[in-house]
Amino acid sequence: MELTFEELRDSFQSRGYHKQPLCLDGLPEKHKRVTLDIFRALVRERDELAEVQTRLLARNQELSRDVQTANRRIKDAEQKTQSVDSRVQTLSTRLRSADQALRDEQASHKLTREQLTRARKENQQIKAAAVQHRAVTDRNAERLRDKIASISMSNLKSLVPDIRIASPAFMAKAGSSSSEMITEQQLITAEHKNAALIETTHALKKLAVDAMTTLYEADSRLHKIVQVEVDHEKSTAHARGHDTDSLLSTTRLFPPLRPLVTQDTEETHPARQRLTALSRAIQDHVAQLSQWAAMNRVRWGKSGDTAWDNHTEIDQELEEVEDQLQSIQRESNADQVIDHQADKPLERTDEFKRRRTSNV
């Protein structure tokens, strides 16, 4: 709808284009129409220009807000990158110190093994010398007995020729001493084998307990990560009962009066039950973390932000470094267990003691 002359005049005066009211008196009608058309075109152009300026101002403000948000996000990403770099440097320092400690520990273990080997050789030499000395002593004792028997028999015959002295008792003594020596050697060999089996069993039990302890520590770390990263409602809804490590002991996992894990007792043995519970807990926590990571990946992927990708790659590198540290620590613990079990003295069992007593 076109504006009339009065509306144009009031609009010009209200906008301050002219202080006095517009007057077209004295102009021909044709000139009035041309002038009014020009005024209407100028007003429309002015209104369009004002509307465009308003839109440009709003768009400029929106772009300014977007620029501020982008700068803030870039600043946060830089701070996260700096913190991650500091963590990587700390882990690198810890890794170097752990490598140095591992090398020192390996050197000390090597010296300990050499000393243990020398001690074992000396022990074997002492045992061999003891056996030889005992054999020589037994032979000397037998010769002495034979000599005493012959002298006694000759003396008695010279004194009382009619009395005959039987000497099979001395022969029986010699036969019993030789059989006792063979039985003693068999007992020593059996005791050595039994002691080696006991030592191996203790080492295997200790390794199994250490492996379960490592699994429990990994499960605890996963549980803490789930509590920190996953929403509180989800973590409380899906979290399983997380017990303490009071049950991770050799006497509880391998009771003395209970047989080892076989096909018949693999579902009822405490060690197998504990291992099954730990594996299930780790699987549940890994599944929760995988679901949480997938959801975050989808959310960050829609926004097109590359800072999340950098953060994820750095976290993966940190996890690899921590895995290497844990593997180094497990190898060091395994070496300590083997060396500690190798230093234990050999013990005699009750069965062999009873056999020795019965033979004697």
Please provide a brief summary of the model.
Residues 328-360 are annotated as: Disordered. Residues 53-129 form a coiled coil. With 360 residues, this protein is mainly α.
Count of helical stretches? 8
The proportion of residues in beta strands is under 5%
Q: Give the end-to-end Cα distance, rounded to a whole number of Å.
A: 133 Å
Give me the Rg, rounded. 49 Å
What do the pLDDT scores average to?
72
Element-level helix/strand string: HHHHHHHH
Q: In terms of quaternary structure, what is this? A: single chain
Structural class: mainly alpha
**Number of DSSP strand runs:** 0
Low-confidence stretches: 161-174, 235-245, 332-349, 355-360
- What characterizes the major β-sheet? none
Give the overall shape, derived from the CA principal axes.
Answer: rod-shaped
Helix amount: over 70%
Family: Belongs to the ADIP family.
InterPro entries: Afadin/alpha-actinin-bd
Keywords: Coiled coil
Region (Disordered): 328-360
